[in-house]
């Protein structure tokens, strides 16, 4: 049996929903062979994980998925020492995007429940129904902290410790291009350009009232604290890239925009509409 100290250290992408992870996954697909990726997006895939040994999982280069981690010690300090990373997003925008996505996509596991019960955005955030208890409230802190914590304050501190001290890196949707470049260096990615494909009709933000935004903000105070800290930390990490980083970002955007224009012409020819980020290139 392979000793834990000699095992490879696979990357672990903790994909928090609606944080640009789908786009970044496409970039990852362009950098890792399919057989080197262990996906955890479906019940079948997660059941497969339960039947996989540590030695087998250590042979993969990347593990990723929408995973709720109950015990971070197993991920960070277990027999396989994963190198985790993630993306964050403005908490209010993330909740709004998640709600409308789940309600409008027929393949969503929440689609029928939200529509059959006419669940409003406010109900999605505030309801104590079992189906909604873990939704719309501090999803990022919950994803990054684990379980068994005595208070939401402890959750924030644990999430921050994991994100800042134990994760190899993180990105912000609102600074996506900079995030790609920073993470590419940390993760050793060679290809990082992406193109825009349709995900949500025209990529439009659904109309949300000021009152609804206030309800979301009140219910997501822990995520807001975490996100504000993450923005400050990300700015610090960008500054550590040196003076040439601004030029690097401009050059990246210039090339990527040119690739997107070419992609747009091809999609227009093929009758496909452009929208949110999806495919890496």
TrEMBL record:
GO terms for molecular function: sulfotransferase activity. Gene3D superfamilies: P-loop containing nucleotide triphosphate hydrolases. GO terms for cellular component: membrane. PANTHER family: COUNTIN RECEPTOR CNR3-RELATED (PTHR32301), GOLVESIN-RELATED (PTHR32301:SF6). This is Putative capsular polysaccharide biosynthesis protein. It comes from Pseudodesulfovibrio piezophilus (strain DSM 21447 / JCM 15486 / C1TLV30).
């Amino acid at each position: 049996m392979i000793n834990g100290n000699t095992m490879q250290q696979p990357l672990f992408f903790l994909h928090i929903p609606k944080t640009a992870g789908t786009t970044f996954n496409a970039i990852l697909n362009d950098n890792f062979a399919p057989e080197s990726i262990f996906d955890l997006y479906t019940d079948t895939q997660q059941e497969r994980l339960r039947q996989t040994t540590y030695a087998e999982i250590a042979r993969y280069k990347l593990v990723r998925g929408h995973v709720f981690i109950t015990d971070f010690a197993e991920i960070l300090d277990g027999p396989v020492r994963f190198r985790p990373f993630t993306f964050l997003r403005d908490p209010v925008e993330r909740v709004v995007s998640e709600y409308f996505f789940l309600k409008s996509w027929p393949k969503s596991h929440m689609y029928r429940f939200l529509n059959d019960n006419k669940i409003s955005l406010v109900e999605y955030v505030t309801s104590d129904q079992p189906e909604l208890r873990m939704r719309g409230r501090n999803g990022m802190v919950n994803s990054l902290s684990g379980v068994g914590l005595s208070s939401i304050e402890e959750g924030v501190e644990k999430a921050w410790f994991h994100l800042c001290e134990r994760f190899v890196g993180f990105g912000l949707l609102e600074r996506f291009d900079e995030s790609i470049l920073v993470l590419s260096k940390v993760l050793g990615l060679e290809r990082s350009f992406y193109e825009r494909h349709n995900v949500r009709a025209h990529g439009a933000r659904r109309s949300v009232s000021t009152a609804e935004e206030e309800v979301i903000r009140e219910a997501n105070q822990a995520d807001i604290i975490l996100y504000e800290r993450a923005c400050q930390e990300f700015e610090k990490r960008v500054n550590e890239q040196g003076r040439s980083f601004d030029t690097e970002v401009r050059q990246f955007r210039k090339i990527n925009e040119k690739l997107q224009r070419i992609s747009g012409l091809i999609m227009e020819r093929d009758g496909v509409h452009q929208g949110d980020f999806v495919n890496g290139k």
